[in-house]
Design goal:
heterodimer, A: mainly alpha, Annexin V, domain 1, two-stranded antiparallel sheet, B: Annexin V, domain 1, 20 helices, about 70% helix, annexin (chain A), Annexin (chain A), repeat (chain A), calcium (chain A), phosphatidylserine binding (chain A)
């Protein structure tokens, strides 16, 4: 018959159905079972997800151990990220895309959702940390069709005023539509006009372009870009970052989310906590019909959960 | 080094303003006094004069100068009186608005300025024109030139001295391959020239020369009339030796009949407080005449006096 502690420990170390582990449970059981190695031994024998009897010991299963290490480190990771300077954070994330093969979507996220000054700060931090310019490394490492878009995005220093020339915006709607018509679905990301418009124009200007596009063609530009996920993401990041971030968070919670997707949760919560977390909560509620705080409370555990709730501006559940 | 001569005892901004105001009043203009004041003050001192003038007389000094002066002399004085970043912003905007493939100004400014100076130009450009520099360059250039110029003005090059010599060799090889195949507009050529740090590029050009026999610019001279090739060669020269590049701009501005006053004014006003001394030395070595002599021969009137006052560091 499993004791309460064994059950609690099993739950705490399962790492399934949620992110994070119950650190506080562990700490208290460690105290309770001090000098009682037979309890731990009995637990090992009962918990065969993590331990399998091999020879005379209950050996740790590598896969599950990796998973646990990751879950234990979530809190650690989010704390370190939180403490870091925002520019250093962005520079390190960018570097992981370039040198550790993390998804390019993270680079698009950083380049398109940060303000002009924040992106500049990230570029400076990148130079300090890695002794290269960000654009130099992106251009060198990304040699496929995404290169033009990514280099353009990270090099941008967009005008941030509200002034928009509506005639120019309308003509750029035409240019985009033509580009979409003439380019093949997989070539659109390399189209000079598309790249020029998306990587140099100011955000208010682009919002006007997106608005006129819908008015003129009856569809949202993103719908017409459905053949290219990165371009779609670029448009969404530029037009409505709160919706974009809600989607990233949602992906982290879905069944079978992969490592990159679950990392997105920490990344978004830490990087947006001081910026637009309120708008993200609103957008999330609209998109998914649930309160972000509720979903976090349900789907995450331990200190990790508590830190997410704090970052979201919520008190502990 | 700067070629400006500053008097030992500098009049106060108020005194300078009074002298200028007097120079404007009455019939005609006392250009001599204007030159005397403005060409012997540093950028900070000139800024102080502008603010003080506005405080005392309620008008922007530049407006008054605009009213009183004419032609090349006026253009030069107005450009000179601007703060260095404002000046670059004005020059770059002028170049973008009437951009043509033979434009030299964008390359000159984008490549000879430091990374932080170029950034400051981009910031100031936005404040003044309510658009980003790269957005305007992208909108006014096409084809290969756009591919080259947008990254060039958007670059924020790393400025450390580190050099990866293996990388320099391999990128020299890449450049050689595309130059040999006459693919001058290839993405790799543009990537290397517009993103690498200046130190890394110098190493790359050296490696190019060592491994492939010719200095890279020699291999880029296939068609002397080709504007794109000229732009590439200019970028390379501005990186390896900006003073020699600028000497050539000055030299060509006074070649044969006719003078390209815009180019002459631009280089002299933008470099007088930076490295005009070195440029003069190169000019003398190259042409066996002093720059002052050439200016005297090729320009006249107040414009000539103004330029000489900036250029001649041994003025009595």
């Amino acid at each position: 018959m499993a004791t309460d502690e064994q059950l609690a420990l099993t739950r705490a170390l399962s790492g399934d159905g949620g992110l994070g582990v119950e650190e506080s449970t562990l700490v208290s059981i460690i105290g309770k079972w001090r000098k009682k190695p037979e309890h731990i031994s009995s637990f090992r024998k009962s918990f065969n997800r993590l331990f399998s009897i091999t020879g005379h010991i209950e050996k740790c299963e590598d896969d599950h151990m990796q998973k646990l290490v990751m879950e234990f480190s979530r809190f650690h990771q989010i704390t370190v990220l939180w403490a870091m300077h925002p520019h250093e954070r962005d520079a390190r994330w960018a570097n992981q895309v370039i040198h550790k093969n993390h998804p390019s979507s993270i680079l698009v996220e950083i380049a398109s959702t940060r303000s002009a000054e924040e992106l500049l700060g990230a570029r400076r931090a990148y130079q300090t940390l890695f002794h290269h310019s960000l654009e130099e490394d992106v251009a060198y490492q990304v040699k496929d069709s995404k290169s033009k878009l990514l280099v353009g995005l990270v090099s941008a220093y967009r005008y941030e005023g509200q002034k928009v020339d509506n005639d120019v915006a309308k003509s750029e709607v035409k240019a985009l539509h033509n580009a979409l018509k003439t380019a093949g679905a997989n070539k659109i990301i390399e189209n000079d006009e598309v790249v020029r418009i998306l990587t140099t124009r100011s955000k208010p200007h682009l919002k006007a372009v997106f608005k006129y596009y819908k008015e003129l063609h009856g569809k949202y530009l993103e719908e017409d870009l459905s053949g290219d996920a990165l371009l779609q993401q670029t448009v969404l990041c530029l037009d409505s970052p709160a919706s974009y971030f809600s989607q990233v968070i949602n992906s982290a919670f879905k069944e079978g989310a992969n490592h990159a997707e679950t990392e997105g949760l920490s990344r978004v919560m830490v990087s947006r906590s001081d910026v637009d977390i309120e708008e993200i909560k609103e957008a999330y509620a609209k998109l998914y019909g649930a309160k972000l705080a509720d979903v976090i409370s349900k789907k995450t555990r331990g200190y990790f959960r508590d830190s997410l709730l704090s970052l979201a501006g919520e008190s502990k559940a | 080094m700067s070629t400006l001569t500053i008097p030992h005892v500098i009049p106060s901004p108020q005194e300078d303003c009074e002298k200028l105001h007097t120079a404007f009043s009455g019939w005609g203009t006392n250009e001599g006094d204007i030159i005397e004041v403005v060409t012997h003050r540093t950028a900070d001192q000139r800024n102080a004069i502008r603010w003080t003038y506005h405080d005392i007389y309620g008008e922007d000094l530049l407006k008054s100068l605009d009213k009183e002066l004419t032609q090349d002399f006026e253009k030069a004085v107005l450009l000179w009186m601007l703060d260095p970043i404002e000046r670059d912003v004005t020059l770059v905007n002028g170049a973008v608005k009437k951009w043509a493939p033979h434009d030299r100004v964008l390359v000159e400014i984008a490549v000879t300025r430091t990374a932080n100076e170029l950034l400051a130009v981009r910031k100031a450009y936005q404040e003044k024109y309510k658009k980003s520099l790269e957005e305007d360059v992208a909108a006014h250039t096409t084809g290969d030139f756009r591919k080259l110029m947008v990254p060039l003005v958007s670059s924020y090059r790393y400025e450390g001295p580190e050099v990866d010599s293996g990388l320099a060799k391999s990128e020299a090889h890449i450049l050689r391959k595309h130059i040999k195949d006459e693919e001058y507009n290839h993405e790799e050529v543009i990537r290397i020239l517009t993103t690498r740090s200046k130190s890394q590029l110098m190493a790359t050009f050296n490696a190019y020369h060592e491994e492939h026999g010719n200095p890279i610019n020699k291999d880029l001279k296939k068609d002397p009339k080709d504007d794109f090739l000229f732009a590439l060669r200019s970028i390379i020269r501005c990186i390896t030796c900006p003073e020699r590049y600028l000497e050539k701009v000055i030299r060509l501005s006074m070649k044969n009949t006719g003078t390209d006053e815009d180019a002459l004014t631009r280089v002299i006003t933008t470099r007088a407080e930076v490295n005009l001394k070195e440029i003069k030395e190169i000019y003398y070595k190259r042409n066996t005449v002093k720059l002052e002599h050439a200016i005297k021969k090729d320009t006249k009137g107040h414009y000539e006096d103004f330029l000489l006052a900036l250029v001649d560091s041994d003025e009595e």
